Amino acid sequence: MFLGETGSGKTTQIPQYLYEAGIGRQGIVAVTQPRRVAAISLATRVSSERRTELGKLVGYTVRFDDLTSDETRIKFLTDGMLLREAIGDPMLRKYSVVILDEAHERTIHTDVLFGVVKAAQKKRKELGKLPLKVIIMSATMDVDQFSQYFNGAPVLYLEGRQHPIQIFYTKQPQSDYLQAALVSVFQIHQEAPFSQDILVFLTGQEEIEAMTKTCRDIAKHLPDGCPQMMVMPLYASLPYSQQLRVFQAAPKGCRKVILSTNIAETSITIAGIKYVVDTGMVKAKKYSPEIGLEVLAVQRVSKAQAWQRTGRAGREDSGICYRLYTEDEFEKFDKMTIPEIQRCNLASVMLQLLALRIPNVLTFDFMSKPSPDAIQAAIEELDLLGAVERKEDQLVLTPLGRKMAAFPLEPKFSKTILLSPKFHCTEEILTIVSLLSVDSVLYNPPARRDEVQSVRKKFISSEGDHLTLLSVYRAFKNVSGNKEWCKENFVNNRNMMLVSDVRAQLRDICVKLSIPIESSRSDTGNIRRCLAHSLFMNAAELQPDGNYSTVGSHQLVTIHPSSVLFHCKPACVVYNGLLHTNKCYMRDLCVVDADWLYDAAPDYFRRKLRAAKN
DNA sequence: GAGCACTGC
After folding, report:
1. Cα-based distances in Å from A343 to A269, A287, A289
2. Where is the Helicase C-terminal domain (predicted)?
3. Which nucleotide is closest, CA of A446 to its C1'?
4. Residues A541 and A513 reside in one and the same domain
5. Which nucleotide minimizes the distance between its C1' and the CA of A109?
6. Domain check: are A334 and A254 in the same one?
């Protein structure tokens, strides 16, 4: 176990030491990363340090991109990718060492891998095979539970070269963190040399766009002698070209002020930041298994997250961080962010564990156990989808479940694909599922809403979002992905290209599983039937009072404003998921017949009806 | 009647 601060070079050096020590001769050294870009750039760097061609001694594997060969001995890969490999080989036989890097981030994939490598290690020992060495690397002090989990593994500490950062707290709690952020930005702006840039952490797109406008307005009316200000928003759904602006140096006499979500905490690193303004707030997802509801809410950051934000000020030189909360408030923050695995729907994770032939998934050795309710809810979902069965008192995958696990998708979407041959619409379902599994291909700049609406009219289907997206994709293919067309039609070109990649991958998997791929052509009824049969547990009916109620749990829900059905009142719909922000919203809707739902799962609805009566 | 943090297979 290595605990190393940022800049200690642990990720690039340790794999090379292991290789030089001869461990790489018995098997490959794997190094996992939570993000694709990190895996690729680290492989590139280590490969050039070894003075070898990338893809030979040193390589990487991420989704859609595999640059490894028979010679590869040091392999960087995303944690999700190693997990996928483990399904084909639970003992990870080709590896002599697995290094799980950035373990402190506690992504859902890293957390599952903790258990998978531990099980592989034990199994290999029992069978007298080459031992599997496991190294956990973390940048924070939470090593105790890592060490404990891995049977008291030794901990090594590495010195980093972080620059000192001065921290200021507010004297009083702030009731309005946006106002406080605004005041701090302009206070810094009037006092500090113009070459020192400011990074402000806020919670979301809307808030950031509003704050950007306010800052720009104020910056127009600054007193003489005050430097100019360039205000830049930064969040994930911002088009790539606009994200890139934050890397450009401001002109002389001008200061950069970047207003960002937590994307700038880890995913995007900006040089030249001297000041960090931390509102102490973040928008984060929680999950309540009882009603299958995701809740997205603004909440306090953890201490670890606050330190991560602070660290963004000291990357090249000493820095300054303004925390817009008192020191007492900070002391009350949670120590660590709750691991993702305790905040998610676990259907995918459980399906993967079953595919790994874990003996008893209900008692799987997680480092941080999810609640029994969450595990139970996931198993029930898999059961409804027909993915699991009981055999000799063990929970195992059905043949259908095993096929579902082959797809890199949420189980309900794998099921949609596997059902589609019955409705002769696999071509269309592949497209729809691909569109749903990447970030939105529809770009909605708030300032140009009317324009967007009039351009988008031609794609809109009265049958719902799935079919609307399908018509956008067809139009995109008709112009061969023309970039100008994308711009004119507010279609995100980058995400659309990704849809094509995903679709090709899913299509390949279908071919491998001998699934016939037919097109329903102009018949949209079959597509909707297929969606009704796979999303029946996500159905809602219009009530006499004009509200919607979910068929399963009688939850009051509303159509999300992003849906093409927002202004409509169809009698019966299925949706991809529920998201609770201010209200409980259904997202991505498809109009269906109530009869189809009952046909899809008569037992389920009979049970629900009985439960409602009791 | 009006809204979507961030990754990843």
Report:
1. 26, 5, 9
2. 187-357
3. B3
4. no
5. B8
6. yes
Say which range, A21-30, A123-132, A571-580, has the weakest mean pLDDT: A21-30
Query: How many folded domains does chain A comprise?
Result: 4
pLDDT at A179 over 90: yes
**Å: A558 CA to B2 C1':** 11
Q: Give A354's Cβ-side CA count (13 Å radius).
A: 31
Backbone torsions φ then ψ of A536, nearest 5 degrees: -60, -25
Separation in Å: B9 C1' and A69 CA: 21
What does R_g of chain A's alpha carbons equal in angstroms? 26
Nearest residue to B6 (CA, C1')? A263
Distance A400 CA to B5 C1' (A): 34
Strand ranges (E), A475-529: none
Residue A481 CA and nucleotide B9 C1' are separated, in Å, by 25
Q: Does position A292 have pLDDT exceeding 80, yes or no?
A: no
User: Based on the domain organization, do A145 and A172 belong to the same domain?
Assistant: no
The gap between A570 CA and B4 C1' (Å) is: 22
Residue labelled with tokens 């707290």: A169
Q: Which nt sits closest to A261, CA to C1'?
A: B5
Give, in Å, how far the C1' of B6 lies from the CA of A42. 21
The helix/strand/coil state of A508 is helix
pLDDT at A7: 54
CA of A585: nearest nucleotide by C1' is: B3
Please check whether residue A308 is in contact with residue A265, taking contact to mean a CB–CB distance below 8 angstroms.
Answer: yes
Residue nearest B3 (alpha carbon to C1'): A561
Task: State pLDDT tens for residues A303-323.
Answer: 999 999 999 998 788 999 999
Residue nearest to nucleotide B8 (CA to C1'): A80
Q: Assess whether A25 and A62 both reside in one domain.
A: yes
- Measured to protein CB atoms, the chain B nucleotides within 7 Å are 1-9
pLDDT of residue A614: 64
Q: State the residue range of the domain holding A321.
A: 165-338
Looking at the predicted structure, is the pLDDT value of residue A610 above 90? no
What distance lies between CA A405 and its chain's CA centroid?
A: 19
**Residue A237, nucleotide of least CA–C1' distance:** B4
A14 and A151 both lie in a single domain: yes
Q: Which nucleotide minimizes the distance between its C1' and the CA of A107?
A: B7
Task: Express each pLDDT in A414-445 by its tens digit.
Answer: 999 999 999 999 999 999 999 999 988 998 88
- The closest alpha carbon to A124, from A86, A88, A83, A91, belongs to A91
- Hey, how many other C-beta atoms are within 10 angstroms of the C-beta on A484? 9
CATH number (domain holding residue A58): 3.40.50.300
Same domain? A150 vs A169: no
**CB within 8 A of A220, min separation 6: which ones?**
none
The Cα–Cα gap between A386 and A47 comes to: 46
Q: Answer yes or no: do A75 and A44 share one domain.
A: yes
Question: Residue A440 CA to B4 C1' — how many Å?
Answer: 10
What's A238's DSSP letter?
S
Domain boundary among A305, A338, A371: A338
Confirm whether A137 is domain-assigned: yes
- Tell me whether residue A523 is in a domain: no
Last residue of a domain, one of A338, A362, A386: A338
Examine residue A349 and state whether it is found in any structural domain, yes or no: no
Domain check: are A174 and A311 in the same one? Answer: yes
Residue A475, Cβ density class (10 Å: 0-12 exposed, 13-18 middle, ≥19 buried): middle
Tell me whether residue A392 is in a domain: no
